[in-house]
Amino acid sequence: MRQRKVGPEDARSWLLVNGARTDLFDTARDSRADQVVLDIEDAVDPAHKAEARAGVVEWLSRGDRSAWVRINDRSTESWDDDVAKLAGVPGLLGVMLAKTEAAEQVTETFDRLGGSTPVLALVESALGIEEAVSIARARGAFRLAFGSGDYRRDTGTSADDLAMAYPRSRLVLASRIGGLPGPIDGPTVSSSHPVLREQTAVTVSLGLTGKLCLDPEQTPVINEVISPTPSDVAWARDFLADFEARGRVIRDGSDKPRLGRARKIERLAQTFGVEPA
């Protein structure tokens, strides 16, 4: 049974699917992933990119099928082919631009796709992290995502939470400055649900609001951890009810931040279908 999808501005789980495996596309679409990304970049051998791209375009052009597509980075010849073939495809929700390192790469991609297709900038290097604010402010930028694996390869950083806190926090701050939704964290490779749950909790604690994933079985865990808890929702609704009952009067300096938090929790609870405990 197909799951109700959460819009990309609030999407928690972003499921990456090998763009050469068209047999997996329908399963991914019907999974619990908030958004699906068909990957024609790192997941596909360079010798087979044209074939994979054609398969993605054909699938997106039939019926009510829709997805995001991870395209190749601006410095490659494949980027030009990607934007040329994907422009105007009916089911294209947006593109994830690999290895984004400059604002103009986002804007040029946006313009080549017709000026209305959102660009999710995947930041995967030291330079990309340094330029994160300008990338977030670029015309066409929709949301930032962290390519944690390539970032570690580029910088020699370990996967330790402390070592990875700076680039994640940098993307959180850049998203706020650029007026974008919260950024999307990199994937957890482990198949262990306790490990995934722990790492997703770190994602939330640092202010990121989504997570890339490689397996449909990871999506329920990610969705649960990133969503408000039932007890959070109960607190928010109680606070809002009390606020209304006292005539919306602000009593002290702590009321405004609590009101903002309560309203945010209530909106997300409605979006994700979370009921109070």
Automatic annotation (TrEMBL):
Residues passing through the membrane, by range? none
Cofactor or coenzyme needed: Mg(2+)
- Chain residues that bind Mg(2+): 124, 150
What are the entry keywords? Magnesium, Metal-binding
Cited InterPro entries: Aldolase/citrate-lyase_domain, Citrate_lyase_beta/mcl1/mcl2, Pyrv/PenolPyrv_kinase-like_dom, Pyrv_kinase-like_dom_sf
Judging by the UniProt lineage, the source's domain of life is Bacteria
Where, by residue number, does substrate bind? 70, 124
Q: Does the keyword NAD apply?
A: no
Give one GO biological process term.
oxaloacetate metabolic process
Which Gene Ontology terms cover its molecular function?
catalytic activity; magnesium ion binding
Stretches assigned to the HpcH/HpaI aldolase/citrate lyase domain = 12-216
Q: What is this protein called?
A: HpcH/HpaI aldolase
Species this protein is from: Geodermatophilus obscurus (strain ATCC 25078 / DSM 43160 / JCM 3152 / CCUG 61914 / KCC A-0152 / KCTC 9177 / NBRC 13315 / NRRL B-3577 / G-20)
Tell me the classification of the organism that encodes this protein: Bacteria, Bacillati, Actinomycetota, Actinomycetes, Geodermatophilales
